[in-house]
Design brief:
The chain has 108 residues and is an alpha+beta fold. It contains three helices and four strands; from the N terminus they run ββαβαβα. It has one domain. A four-stranded antiparallel β-sheet has the order 2-1-4-3. The radius of gyration is 14 Å and the shape is globular.
Amino acid sequence: MSDSKNNIKLNYEYRDAGNYHVSGYEIFSNPDCLSLIEIESKIKAALIDSEFFDPSDWKVRRLKHDDWIPELDHTWNKFESIEYSNEAPTISTSVNDFLKSISNIPKY
């Protein structure tokens, strides 16, 4: 249904205790044609310490390494950027619904 030029790509990463990282993304439809500025502003308002989020709270795929060490590694991922995308959505939630859901999550 979405105009592929108007989809939104959320880029984020995971850094483990050894400072190794894994990059990933989710792509949302944007049927309400929200601007990147508006989306980024709402994302930044929901971040922990201005850069982190818990992917289970945000209902996006959690990035991590296969050699997970619970005593050293953490569950938070780091917001990197957003951009328009030609790619099909990877998640069924629209970006507007996503933004509404993350705005209600208590910060740690």
